[in-house]
Amino acid sequence: MARLSKFTLSQSLARADLADVNLFVTVEKTRNFSKAARQHGLSPSAVSHAITNLEARLGMRLFNRTSRSVVPTEVGATFALRLRAAFQEITEALSDINQRRGRPIGKLRLNILSDSARIVMAKVLPDFIQRYPEMAVEVEVCNRAFDIVSAGFDAGVGYANTAPENFITIHIARGLRWIAVAAPDYISVRPPIEVPSDLRVHECIKINIGAGSTCNSEFCRGDESVIVEVSGRLCVNETALGVELALTGVGILYCLQFRVAEYLASGSLVNVLSDWALDAPPFRLDYPRGRQMAPGARRVDQYVKSFSLGA
């Protein structure tokens, strides 16, 4: 046969070349055109023709053929040995891609409310990054609403009643309970509090929820529902600071029960309206409609769905 002229291993392989070398490896392994043909869903003549064309392009005979046997030449045996190693690399590479498809890789940027960050994410993320070592998570804690897409975030976590338009919303964890708390020192020197409307004459620590608005105190008891617009000289935009202030006895704070559970247990804070509370929807995970959810966000979603906040 002629020397390598039409095809060399330094050239880029076309799709037909890859198909033919794959056939060649099967023929070399089975030593039979018919068996190789069955494995590839082809006719024996098609396999024989493909091998002949490959030999022509290479300018080398790969098999010695008789009516009873197909035996690789020395060149063919060496060629097959190297190709098997190459195809093993390809198989492992495809397997690695398949495995990576099922786990998050890269960076996940989350915009998270302070309450959800401390209640949910602080307990979820340590196990998350340990389980997915190829994932980096960047968290920005913020208590104001803004366009997370233009800011470059993959997803945001907020309260269920503040979901942005044109976003997919997924509820995470369990429902939330809101209560009013104060330090015993504050209650001991102030007018009694029996119903939510009594809060109007008390010093309350207001929570700024952005855009110049503050969070009203909403309570339910059985079928009764009351919304109280409280007053107070202190206004903060972060629950942790509000809790610290309430512990000093300067006022009443309306917040999530989970955020003050340890202080309620120790008596540092008390529930000033034990018969009244608001059972609200859980936190929600948002991501833009019409855009594929980041794999990391899907995993975080699965983690927080199983996390129980309690009431």
TrEMBL record:
<dbReference type="Pfam" id="PF00126">
    <property type="entry name" value="HTH_1"/>
</dbReference>
<feature type="domain" description="HTH lysR-type">
    <location>
        <begin position="17"/>
        <end position="73"/>
    </location>
</feature>
<keyword id="KW-0804">Transcription</keyword>
<dbReference type="InterPro" id="IPR036388">
    <property type="entry name" value="WH-like_DNA-bd_sf"/>
</dbReference>
<keyword id="KW-0238">DNA-binding</keyword>
<protein>
    <submittedName>
        <fullName>LysR family transcriptional regulator</fullName>
    </submittedName>
</protein>
<dbReference type="Pfam" id="PF03466">
    <property type="entry name" value="LysR_substrate"/>
</dbReference>
<comment type="similarity">
    <text>Belongs to the LysR transcriptional regulatory family.</text>
</comment>
<keyword id="KW-0805">Transcription regulation</keyword>
<dbReference type="InterPro" id="IPR036390">
    <property type="entry name" value="WH_DNA-bd_sf"/>
</dbReference>
<dbReference type="InterPro" id="IPR058163">
    <property type="entry name" value="LysR-type_TF_proteobact-type"/>
</dbReference>
<dbReference type="InterPro" id="IPR000847">
    <property type="entry name" value="LysR_HTH_N"/>
</dbReference>
<dbReference type="InterPro" id="IPR005119">
    <property type="entry name" value="LysR_subst-bd"/>
</dbReference>
